[in-house]
């Protein structure tokens, strides 16, 4: 049975992102998997990486619990709005504090790291006010490069699937509801294609 960790990067429980994340979570369970939904803004932790990747900053209890949730997940889905062509601060804070060397990745003798989240699939669903062409040509699909490739793929997630909802500012209520309903199909696909077992090296971290 595949287990999904669903991470919500919007603080408002009545937000469009919250509705998308909840619909996805419910549908993943209906598809035969299990799913845990975590609202990142509810976690109590210092989002600032005080010493870079050096020692000296212990993980708070909420981050330790989230780390265990990552370790037990076959699939991780991220839901958040795009702010300034990047994820919200709470998402970046979780990544900065949690995706540390020798847990999320490690360097060996070569120039490129080994991603220690390997064996886990991922999904990113992000919303933005920008139209698709503006985002592509003016911002060079910045969030897909930095978060999908530079973060998730860097630490070993794969395959990584994405869904971007553009022009949210002008979406009608009916369109928003259609998008929420469409999360069921994404969840069914992700549940069916999630890894059946975690790789031992990753699961044993």
Could you characterize the architecture of this molecule?
The structure is a single chain. The chain is of the alpha/beta class and 205 residues long. It has a single domain (3-203), classed as Rossmann fold. It has helices at 16-30, 61-72, 89-98, 132-138, 142-153, 173-193, 200-203, and strands at residues 3-8, 34-39, 75-81, 105-107, 113-115, 121-127, 160-165. The strands form two sheets. It has a five-stranded parallel β-sheet with strand order 2-1-3-6-7, with helices on both faces. A two-stranded antiparallel ribbon has the order 4-5. Strand 1 (3-8), helix 1 and strand 2 form a beta-alpha-beta unit. It is globular, with a radius of gyration of 17 Å. Residues 201-205 have low confidence and may be disordered.
Keywords for this structure?
7 strands; alpha/beta; 40% helix; 205 residues; 7 helices
CATH topology: Rossmann fold
**Contiguous runs where pLDDT drops below 50 for at least 5 residues:** 201-205
Order of helices and strands: EHEHEHEEEHHEHH
- CATH secondary-structure class: Alpha Beta
- How widely separated are the two ends? 21 Å
Sheet of most strands: 5 strands, parallel
- Give the number of helices: 7
Number of domains: 1
Relative helix content? 25-40%
Residue share in β-strands: 15-25%
Mean pLDDT: 93
- Outline: globular
Second CATH tier, the architecture: 3-Layer(aba) Sandwich
CATH superfamily: Flavodoxin domain
Number of strands: 7
């Amino acid at each position: 049975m595949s287990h999904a960790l669903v991470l919500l990067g919007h603080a408002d429980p009545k937000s469009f992102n919250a509705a998308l994340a909840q619909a996805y979570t419910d549908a993943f369970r209906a598809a035969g998997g299990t799913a845990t939904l975590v609202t990142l803004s509810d976690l109590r932790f210092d989002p600032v990486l005080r010493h870079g990747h050096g020692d000296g900053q212990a993980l708070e209890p909420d981050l330790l619990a989230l780390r265990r949730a990552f370790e037990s997940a076959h699939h991780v889905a991220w839901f958040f709005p795009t702010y300034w062509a990047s994820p919200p601060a709470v998402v970046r804070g979780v990544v900065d504090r949690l995706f540390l060397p020798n847990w999320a990745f490690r360097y060996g003798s070569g120039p490129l790291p080994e991603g220690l989240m390997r064996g886990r699939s991922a999904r990113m669903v992000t919303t933005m006010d920008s139209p698709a062409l503006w985002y592509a040509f003016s911002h060079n699909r910045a969030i897909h490069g930095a978060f999908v490739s530079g973060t998730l793929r860097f630490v070993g997630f794969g395959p990584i699937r994405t869904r971007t909802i553009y022009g949210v500012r002008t979406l009608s209520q009916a369109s928003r509801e259609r998008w929420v309903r469409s999360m069921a199909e994404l969840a069914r696909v992700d549940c069916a294609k999630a890894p059946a077992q975690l790789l031992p090296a990753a699961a044993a971290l």
